Amino acid sequence: MTYSIIGAGIGGLSTALAFESAGIDYQLFERAPVLKKVGAGIWLAPNALQVLQDVQSEGNAINRISLCQADLTPISDNFQDSILKRFGYSTVAIHRAKLQQLLYDKIPDEKKFLGKSFESFGLHSDGKIDIHFTDNTMHQTDYLIGADGIHSNVRKQLFPNSQLRYSGQTCWRGVANIKLQQEFQLRGMELWGNQIRFGLSKLSDNAVYWFAVALDNANQNDQSDVKEKLLNMFESFHPLVNQLISATHKDEILRNDILDLMPMNKWYDNAICLIGDAAHATTPNMGQGGAQAIEDAFYLCKCIQQHPDKNAFELFQQKRKSKVNTIVKQSWNTGKMAHWKHGQSFRNLLIKSIPKRLLEKKMMEMYRIDADF
């Protein structure tokens, strides 16, 4: 039986690698003709690192995650010692393009195909699936896995009533070519101001990933210089913020509206299954989008391996749906809370009052991976 994976993003690549290790027959199709260095940084939490174990040494370790006010006064400060002790990993920051290339290079050349943009699928009476590409070629397979992201064309055909949800927020991301001060080198930080926020982490000795988030009412769609606009927007923040923005070329500042996918009842139908953002795209407020796609790859492979006599896609959904939906909901609510117009002092006090044991328990649950089920 052959599995065809559409999309060479983090989820598709992780699935291909899981199948490669398990001896499951597969092909990987990606619409881009070449892999380009696109995107900015990504945080890989311990649940992701338990699956992609050899990635840890390629990024920058984050041993402390801090939520702060605009001037860097801590609201919540979480050291990762207990997480590291429990799982063997803390969080790692890495450039998304570097991660993608690392994973892509591990896949045998004969199993990966670039320049193959998915157009549609067709079903045969015997269960076979025809995959049609925009270059007028076709490939036949036994199973189809849609790993083609939040705007998934596989999902649009499989579940045409699925809906994206706009958060009302826009995110700018960049990588500053700068050496971060020693006190910040092992930290991931997010600063909350008046309906705007800014996050940062070291990627390497002379590279710092940052992101900035604002609401619609910040006039982010105007045509003025994006760099000047961000510098003005965050002028009241700690000087480090504008230092990072200033050290980033304006043409390398990426802008995206923050969306997620309204939770769906099903991620699969017959021999077609969605994974990662194609199935359950979440807002980035918990740093779990990539990690959940990586978990999908792990669990889907285990379902196929351990239960050959059962519907692997159904088992996969049963195993993953509750956890994923909880993260999607919590991430959405966190994003809304971060941009409260009123009650910001109360919000900060409320966050400070959460017992560290409770926070640690929730993190432990989120990071746990079950090898057998």
Biggest sheet character: 7 strands, mixed
The CATH architecture would be 3-Layer(bba) Sandwich
Strand order of the largest sheet: 6-5-14-15-16-13-17
Number of domains: 1
The Cα radius of gyration reads 21 Å
Gross geometry: globular
User: Quick one: how many beta strands?
Assistant: 19
Mean pLDDT: 95
In CATH terms, the superfamily is FAD/NAD(P)-binding domain
CATH topology name: FAD/NAD(P)-binding domain
Q: What level of helicity do the residues show?
A: 25-40%
In whole angstroms, the N-to-C terminal distance is 23 Å
Helix-strand category: alpha/beta
Q: What's the number of helices?
A: 12
Q: What top-tier CATH class fits best?
A: Alpha Beta
Percent strand equals 25-35%
Poorly predicted segments? none
List keywords for this structure.
373 residues, FAD/NAD(P)-binding domain, alpha/beta
Précis, in short:
This protein is α/β, with parallel strands linked by helices and 373 residues long. The chain is built from 12 helices and 19 strands. The model has no long low-confidence stretch (mean pLDDT 95).
Please describe what this structure looks like.
This protein has 373 residues and is α/β, with parallel strands linked by helices. It has a single domain, classed as 3-Layer(bba) Sandwich (FAD/NAD(P)-binding domain). Helices cover 34% and strands 28% of the residues. It has twelve helices and 19 strands. The chain has helices spanning 10-22, 46-51, 81-87, 96-105, 153-158, 226-233, 239-246, 277-280, 289-306, 312-338, 344-352, 356-367, and strands spanning 3-6, 26-29, 41-44, 60-62, 64-69, 74-79, 91-95, 112-113, 118-123, 129-133, 138-141, 143-146, 164-176, 187-192, 196-204, 207-215, 254-261, 268-269, 272-274. The strands form four sheets. The chain has a seven-stranded mixed β-sheet with strand order 6-5-14-15-16-13-17. A six-stranded mixed β-sheet has the order 8-2-1-12-19-18. Strands 3-7-4 form a three-stranded antiparallel β-sheet. Strand 15 (196-204) and strand 16 form a beta hairpin. Helix 1 (10-22) runs parallel beside helix 4 (96-105) and helix 1 runs parallel beside helix 9 (289-306). The longest helix has 27 residues, at 312-338. The radius of gyration is 21 Å and the shape is globular. The two termini are 23 Å apart. The mean pLDDT is 95.
